[in-house]
Specification:
Elements lengths: L2 H19 L3 H15 L4 H5 L8 H7 L5 H12 L13 E4 L9 E4 L1 H21 L7 E4 L7 E2 L5 E3 L1 H7 L3 H4 L14 H12 L4 E5 L3 H9 L1 H14 L10 H8 L6 H14 L4 H4 L5 E4 L6 H4 L2 H5 L4 E3 L20 E2 L6 E6 L21 E7 L7 E13 L2 E9 L3 E2 L6 E2 H15 L3 E9 L5 E8 L5 H18 L1 H8 L7 E5 L3 H11 L24 E6 L2
Parallel strand pairs: 1-5, 3-6, 6-7, 7-8, 17-18
Antiparallel strand pairs: 1-2, 4-5, 9-13, 10-11, 11-12, 12-13, 14-15, 16-17, 18-19
Helix pairs in contact: 1-6, 9-11, 11-13, 17-18, 18-19
Length: 552
Amino acid sequence: MHLPTVLMRLLAPSARAFEQATKDPIRAQEKILLEFLSRNKNTEYGKKYSFNKIKNIEDFRKNVPVTSYEYMRPLVDMMADGRANVLTADKPVFFGITSGTTGKPKLIPVTEYSKKKKAEVMNIWAYYVYRDHPDIFDGKVLAIISPEVKNKTKAGIPYGPEDGHAYNNLPAVVKNYYVLPYELFYEDDYDARYYCMLRLSMEESISTIATLNPSSIVLLCERIEKWAKEIISDIDKGTLKKDIVLSKTTRKKIEKKLKPNHKRAEELRKLLKEKGQLLPKDFWPKMKLIECWKGGTVKLYLKQLPQYFGNVPIRDFGVLSTEARSSIPMSDKGSSSPLAIQGNFYEFMPREDLCSAHKRYLLCDEVETGKEYFLIVTSPCGFYRYNIDDVVKVAGFYNKTPMVEFIQKGMNAISLTGEKIYECHVSDAVNAAVAELDVPLDFFAASVEMGKPDKYIFLVEFNGNPGAQLRRELLKKIEEQLCKNNSEYKDIREQQLLGHPVLKVIEKGGFQKYKAKKISEGTHDGQFKPPQLVPDTAFQINFRITEEIKID
């Protein structure tokens, strides 16, 4: 029987139960909350906050405080050192680690129970993918991830990126469809890793690409032109280029499966001759779906995908972090999806309450469409009323359950003189300017430069070579849109408390050099999030500036 058909039959009861639960989300939320508390009532944390006396949501919110990671860090450190029964009755078998791009890396406990609960949410997500794309396994799967184990804690518990952990624990029947060997993701040489990805995947018929960040897909596509002829030669001969830097283990693993493939090599040569370039939409004609993030700051990269893949649909992974999988996309449309009400317990702090002495914590039936909130999560990993520092927007409701989309990391904001610029303001302004002027970018990031007066700077790497006038227009449009997005910024600019912004053009390939540097320092490839608002005034020294453009 066809694999997606089998999987749909297995997962359909869970999907039906989820859809039924969305009609009465508070009931589902109280059920999962009490399950967590009952399970962990005899832990140190459970005893401290009297979990055994909590009978309902109201009791829970009276007894247990809202926390941050820094509050939880000493307790997690105890677990990492081998102490049992701290936050969870179940022993951690792994610690997920954040990407580290927003601060000091965090260890997130993973137990067999929390893996099971998170997998239940993932399975419902997968059901809707198979329902909408029953031909998704007509070819191979190209997944780009980070390796699971980076190191071990003092107690010998492994830790690393969670996407690698999930990849390594796929069922064998599904893993057989994946084109890349897991060992490849341990390779440190950036060029070698991407060459191998293309060498192996371009020989196959790929039907879906899966990776958290679409920037990884764009980078892969940009490398095709550079290596096209060498890859075709390797496919023809059944070889792997000798001068790329790979460990003996990985090279042996890859070369063991290689055979001369004259037919595929000739197909690629013919496409290259006819089209003048090799594009995935031509050499992977059976591509059915791209799976990646769609919310927040990645929209710039989503806009670049059609030039490589045409109109292939894109399915969001939903509001997803190392701490919690918080929503379940049910279609390819947009980036909002129903709250995963059976996987975690949620509260919502209105964004405007961030600096208030009297913060409100709303339940999922109290939020409003169009409003933005900080997400407060109680999860099976042992975090209770935990401010995950994600801002989500309520886009509407599915039955009575909120549909949420990720907006940004909550604390990623700059306020030099009271303007309170958030990353989403910058992202929206640049994306709107790029769309209006049709000036493609490979990278942008906003930062600040101190002076008399202080000012914002926009570091950009162009995809192509737009003329001087168009570059100036881009800066003007960004400034206009930023004033439109943020009235406080507009007022501050009019008061001349902030100077004119400056567009700084970086050398071609500058972003990829920066990304490679961050990865070499320990940031995980699959989880790398291109920074789009950086308060560090020294950030620009990471790039060679080739031109500065100012508003007249």
